[in-house]
Design brief:
Chain lengths: ~150, ~150
């Protein structure tokens, strides 16, 4: 199961290395991680996603609390947290496919970040729902006439 | 000067640790870093910002190329790259300040991600211009009657 952790660290060289070393030593692969400044110049926030059991997560949180420069560790849970993800997606777009791609982008609320002669870069902000429905699905009707790399937009 | 590097790495435990260790060993502080999946399941992309001289950057790039799991390193330059940053900003918002804050948010193109009884979480996507104007500035006229934590919206 994928868990999201929000970690406040002192903004010092080596702080991120200590955190990522701890995951590497224990063999956990970080699915995604973002670290950046907070409203306090001396403090950074790491948001990371890791695929592990609840038991492993408890161990990880315990280990993190022991690390130098780590100030606070919280698990973000779908019910109580706001989560966002920003993606930039470059799609190959020869002239005859461009209209189709732009129409698709509109459906998925993607904005055009850059438009080149052969490619378009889309910007998508993904909202991870506050309350989840559980996984639902439908066969893709687009499979018969998929434009190139259209999968990148889903 | 702040430089942005885009690094493709193999999606293996320890790959991020090797990269962040290299920065820590050399004493460079990473301003921000994001790592996440790409369109290829075995490859992740790290985008990081580091404040260093052009000479140091050359050394960093050289060292990174030597690391296990690092596939490609590119500097993203303002003239040729599309850069975005997503921020979630929680602002304390007592009822009598809410209208003012929401009006301000509109000016800065911030969207409301969560609205609580005492706080609002805003979502802002920052566009780092493709061509820079150089730094320009004006005195803040808002300093006289700033709402609480309004600075977080700029």
């Amino acid at each position: 199961m994928i868990h999201t952790l929000s970690v406040l660290i002192e903004n010092r060289p080596g702080a991120l290395a200590r955190v990522s070393n701890m995951f590497a030593r224990r063999g956990y692969n970080i699915e995604s991680l973002a670290v950046g400044p907070t409203e306090r110049p001396t403090v950074s926030r790491i948001t990371l996603r890791v695929d592990c059991s609840v038991h492993s997560l408890e161990q990880i949180v315990k280990q993190m609390h022991k690390l130098v420069n780590v100030l606070r560790v919280n698990e973000l849970e779908a019910e109580t947290a706001v989560e966002r993800e920003l993606a930039l997606i470059k799609v190959s777009a020869p002239p005859d496919k461009r209209a189709e791609l732009l129409a698709l982008a509109e459906v998925f609320n993607a904005r055009v970040a850059d438009l080149g002669p052969d490619a378009i870069v889309f910007e998508v902000v993904g909202v991870k729902e506050l309350v989840r429905t559980g996984r639902i699905g439908l066969g893709r009707s687009s499979l018969r006439k998929a434009p190139p790399k259209q999968h990148a937009l889903r």
